[in-house]
Amino acid sequence: MSRKFEIAVIGATGSVGETLVQLLEERAFPLGSLHLLASGESTGQSVSFRGKNLRVKDLQMFDFSTVQIAFFAAGKTVTQRYAPVAAAAGCSVIDLSNGLESDRAVRVVPEVNAHALEGLKAPFVLACPSAIGTVLACTLAALPVAVRVEQVVVTACMAVSSRGREGVSELARQTAELLNARPLQNNVFDRQMAFNLLAQVESVDEHGHSAIERQIVADLKLLLGRPELHVSVSCIQVPVFFGDSLNVSLQTAADVDMQQVRSSLDAAPALELVENDDFPTAVGDAVGQDAIYVGRVRSGFDKRSELNLWITSDNVRKGAALNAVQLAELLIKHYL
Fold it and tell me: What does the pLDDT average to over 6-14?
């Protein structure tokens, strides 16, 4: 009989944690028992799994020595407090909260840099990169070897689910308020989100860059093993519930063979190439799906060394939860 693994999910009532639990069921993960953990108001709630309702337990009282892998899908503060406790108990950690720095948790995307696990020892402390960094790395890694990318310029249209359930609730509430001529309230976002575009996501530093923009740059360079790569990222918040969309312009070292590029993108297992005068959208294609959708593949107007792409994916599912589950699958297959 194949081995079963004891698993804990911290933050199972959040949007990422909920999707993670769904994926563990969909992918027939070899589970012995699933422990759902939280602190505060979420403790005591129920989550459906394999036809049963599992009760969310108190994180503070949990013994991490009883599980082999813990997914941290709650906030950064929770991860920073309890991930070291889990690792000290011999439990491998997979962080989805961006709570652990890269020198403490190795960032891995299985389709891009699975080799980063080689030489590590249990208990593993791993992290999922930012959702946009994950999607960009998967796409760039799928390009032909002959395409040497020198510069990446990205405009990232981020769904409000990047701010958790609170962001989704605020967009829904504001939409209803405006349609019913009621006063508008701003809680999560500092101004109207419904029917609007916000030119920055959260606060910016003295140079005008937000934390998520810096994180995407760092993630992409790390995942591709290209510290010298020139990366420019602008994140805007858009009134979409789920699904990030990226407009990407790549400058390459030499002229690009467009047919070779399309063939490579089409063959990549994580990608879905959309062509024939069509293009993918977050709502119509990506939401609820495991694939990264790539369309509008074209060269520049003046430079054959410029490659332009439109990319969309489910930021919660593909960008976060699926990557974490695939990481766990790699661990149990080769390392645990």
Answer: 93
Which tokens in the block code for residue 215? 């994180």
CA distance 147 to 298: 14
Cα gap 192→290, rounded to integer Å: 31
Torsions phi, psi for 165 (to 5 deg)? -60, -30
Q: What six digits make up the tokens of 90?
A: 């011999």
pTM score, whole prediction: 0.94
Residue 136 structure tokens: 């960009």
For 287-328, how does the pLDDT look when each residue is reduced to its tens digit (9 = 90+)? 999 999 999 999 999 889 999 999 999 999 999 999 999 999
pLDDT in tens, 159-211: 999 999 999 999 999 999 999 999 999 999 999 999 999 999 999 999 999 99
Alpha carbons within 13 A on the beta-carbon side of 145: 0
User: What is residue 28's DSSP assignment?
Assistant: T
Using the structure block, give the residue that is written with the tokens 């993960």: 29
Answer yes or no: are the C-beta atoms of 149 and 229 closer than 8 Å: yes
Tokens of 219: 């993630």
Q: How far apart are CA 244 and CA 100, in angstroms?
A: 23
CB contact at 8 A, 53 and 28 = no
Q: Provide the 3-class DSSP secondary structure of residue 298.
A: strand
Q: What is the DSSP string of 138-160?
A: HHHHTS-TT--EEEEEEEEEE-G
What's the CA gap between 265 and 275, in Å, rounded?
11
Tokens 């661990």 correspond to 331
